[in-house]
Design a protein that fits this description.
It contains 10 helices and 13 strands. It is an alpha+beta fold. The chain has 3 domains: 89 residues, Beta-Lactamase, CATH 3.30.450; 86 residues, Helix Hairpins, CATH 1.10.287; 160 residues, Heat Shock Protein 90 (2-Layer Sandwich), CATH 3.30.565. The structure holds adenosine-5'-diphosphate (ADP).
Length: 353
């Protein structure tokens, strides 16, 4: 064995990657990971040695530097690198380990983003909750007082009384959000309870019925007939749904199609429930898509660009996921998925309206 082989054998023994040194058609040295993968003896003909692993013999014939898959279901990448005029280093990289490593990096990155989104929510939340609590409480009281006086003096003003009811309903919703944000900033936990997603859709639509009528938007609902129960914080999840619906309404108003439609679909499938809010508005450009869930990115004249980032944080607090997809016929679709309780039987029947 010449000097290069001895040095290499020593160095190769220290490495995790599967490595072998070839001298022309002969195997010269192999390290322990390679020995475990493709057992062989120095001096053996490299073609015989490589025959035991699918695709490795072909990889040995490929040009230097080329990467070739080998092994059962191609889980290794084989590459040959020239060491000197005679010797070639063969390197087998475990693709599964590399992909696993990559996935861990992505998970860590997502974890960091999640933490920073949570911080955005709680910092913004405490400021807003503090500043808005008083005026919202005062508005609710004024509206209730006004409604009482109106009903006494003009009991037949049914339209005005109905409008005041709606106003009280909206303000109550706003104060619930504020209350919930205040609680969250203290506990840092969603206040979860069993809740029905079908009911949540109807409640959210109740809060937006005026906007839907004003914009003359058709609503297509595909909801299961029976309740879809999840463990969740009703105020937070309603906030998500209302944000998605308001975004769809904004898009349909800013660039109105001939027949504006919003579709809401709920499916309870396997381990999770998925809710989709889709519109046939203008859709979004790839540039907007790239920044969609980042705070403070908005294309609207008066937008703050916080809605989607907060929605994603709220869903992730429920161990769920929120994402976007482009619709083939144009427009946007936002999806969120929440885990379903393991034992609960879920309905399969659906109705379309
Ligand atoms: P904001 O509504 O304040 O802009 P969001 O975070 O809710 O903040 O939305 C960010 C951006 O995403 C919007 O400004 C808009 O460009 C885009 N967007 C969200 N939903 C839709 C939709 N349904 N159709 C078209 N664009 C949308």
């Amino acid at each position: 064995m010449n000097r290069i082989d001895a040095d290499l054998l020593h160095a190769l023994g220290e490495l995790d990657e599967a490595l072998a040194v070839l001298d022309g058609d002969t195997l010269v040295a192999l390290n322990a990971p390679m020995q475990a993968l493709v057992p062989g003896e120095p001096g053996q003909a490299s073609a015989d040695w490589a025959a035991s692993v699918l695709g490795l013999a072909t990889a040995l014939e490929a040009p230097l530097g080329a990467r070739q898959r080998c092994g059962v279901s191609g889980e290794y990448l084989a590459q040959r690198v020239a060491l000197d005029a005679r010797h070639v280093l063969l390197r087998l990289t475990d693709e599964r380990a590399r992909l696993h490593h990559l996935q861990r990096q992505l998970d860590d990155r997502e974890g960091l983003l999640f933490t920073s989104r949570s911080l955005t929510v709680s910092e913004m939340g405490s400021v807003l909750a503090h500043e808005l609590n008083q005026p919202i409480g005062a508005t609710a009281n004024l509206l209730r007082g006004l409604k009482l006086r109106l009903s006494r003096r003009h009991p037949d003003s049914t339209d005005e009384l109905a409008a005041l009811d709606k106003a009280v309903q909206q303000v109550t919703y706003a104060s619930q959000i504020i209350g919930r944000v205040r609680e969250y900033t203290q506990s840092r936990q969603p206040k979860t309870e069993p809740l029905d997603l079908v009911e949540l859709v109807h409640q959210s639509l109740g809060l937006l019925d005026w906007d839907l009528q004003r914009e003359a938007v058709q609503l297509h609902l595909r909801l299961p007939l029976a309740p879809v129960m999840v463990q969740g914080d009703a105020v937070m999840l309603q906030q998500v749904l209302i944000n998605l619906l308001r975004n769809a309404l904004d898009a349909l108003r800013l660039d109105r199609p001939a027949e504006p439609v919003i579709e809401i679909e709920l499916q309870a499938d396997g381990p999770r429930a998925e809710l989709r809010v889709a519109d046939n508005g203008p859709g979004i450009t790839p540039q907007t898509e790239a920044r969609l869930f980042l705070p403070f990115s908005s294309t609207k004249p008066n937008g703050m660009g916080l809605g989607l980032s907060i929605c994603r944080s709220l869903i992730e607090m429920h161990q769920g996921r929120l994402w976007f997809s482009r619709r083939d016929m144009g427009g946007c679709c936002f999806h969120f998925a929440l885990p379903l309780p393991v034992a609960a039987p879920q309905p399969t029947l659906e109705k379309t309206t």
